[in-house]
Each structure stands twice: as C-alpha cells, then as structure tokens.
Fold this sequence. Notes:
The protein is mainly alpha-helical. Helices cover 53% and strands 8% of the residues.
Amino acid sequence: MVAGLLSNAVVTDANAGVMPVVGMPSGLHPVSSMWEAAKPTTRLPFLADQASLGLFSIGDLMLLLGGIVVVGACLRRTFQLFALRALNQTCLVRVRSAFEDGQSPPCKTSSLLFGKKGP
C-alpha cells in the first residue's frame, strides 16, 4: 500500500500537483483540477492514470491490492480465532464431563484451565 501511495505522490509532485491522465477521451472533463490530460511534457507518464486501466494508475492498483491483502489477513486471523474459540468450547465440555465422571481430562487445554495434566 505504501508503494502505491508513494507512486501516486511522486507522479503528482513531478507534474506540479496534477495527476495526468494518459489517453483521456476528449469528451471527458475532470471534475477537479487535480486531474488533466497528459501532454507531451508530462513527467513519469507510466505512473499516471491510464485510460487503458479504467482511469486508474499503477499506484491505485497497488493500493487496491495492498488493501485486499490487509483485509484478507485480518479475516484469516478472525476466522482462526473463531475456530480456536469453538475448539476450546468443545474441549471445555469434554473436560467438565470428564471431571464429573471422575476421569482425567481429555484435552491438552485442560492443563491450562485447571492446572492439571491431561492423559
């Protein structure tokens, strides 16, 4: 994500605070003065917004990819925590049942919960 942000900042700074758009259709008029059609004097046009990329730049795509990776990593961690929580709940039920029956606890987590070693 930082690479995408840096890429967009570099091309905007190199072009006096304006993000050039390479291949902008003549009928398209930007809603902000932040964008303008690329000119022959445009610096770093390969980092600018590209009409062939749906008016996105390479930096925009890197930001999008980085965001997807971050969200994916967070979701993976969340699902792992849910799975661990479900496993611990199952183990707690087994441990309670084993203690009620006078048996040794069947799960490794029981030693953490009750200070006793399992089988």
